[in-house]
Description:
Elements: H1 2-19, H2 24-33, H3 38-59, H4 61-64, H5 68-91, H6 94-128, H7 133-153, H8 158-168, H9 174-199, H10 204-224, H11 230-252
Amino acid sequence: MEWILLFVAGVLGGVLNSVAGGGSFITFPALLFVGVPPIAANATNTFAACAGYISGAYGFRKDIVQSTASLISLVCLSLLGGALGALLLLSVDESLFLEAIPWLLLFATLLFVFGQHINRLFAQLASRSTIHPFWGVASLALCLVCVSAYGGFFNAGLGVIVLSYLVLAGYSDINQMNGLKLLVSSCVSIIAIAIFIVDGSIDWSRGIVVMLGTLAGGYVAARISRNIPQIYIRGFVSTSSAFMTIYFFFDVY
């Protein structure tokens, strides 16, 4: 039953990631439910989600290479931030991270629900920005490191934050932005997974089951997503993530 639960959670997570995002709201709690310790569950969830990021980035490869000039710095800063976030996660006490889970889920839920409004706000800020080019580049670089550090520490909601960063950085082509979002998420996950492997934090058997589920879910989503209005998918993610957040607040506190 445990393997079935994890696989089904992976399928649902894969469908949501492909259609609207927010798959970690399903897969991360499922790993906790079957008894994986919080930090190991977070590390395992990052491993399970990574294959979807990589395959998605490959699918957008033609859009990604349009920004060749900034690609190297984007990758390097994403790797740096992802490593910092993963190291921070492993340095946190297990009980402290458990207490932080409801707040992290609340933050990720608010990002998901209000992500489009945040992106519009950042677009307005970017259009009105008059700061010196050097400080603009430096602040954007620091912003990307912080965004990637969040992803290395806690994967849920990463896609929304990366999209907000890309809007702030001046990108406007939605296909290119989705490709770069997946590239940044891939880099953050890969470096974090490497650190988690060294630390021995990944539950491989459960993680592989969830990963297979996410891959199957992504394939299913490609078949059915055109027939389901995205407003219903986003409504389901928002509702389920809100319930998960409330549950963890009651459970932890």
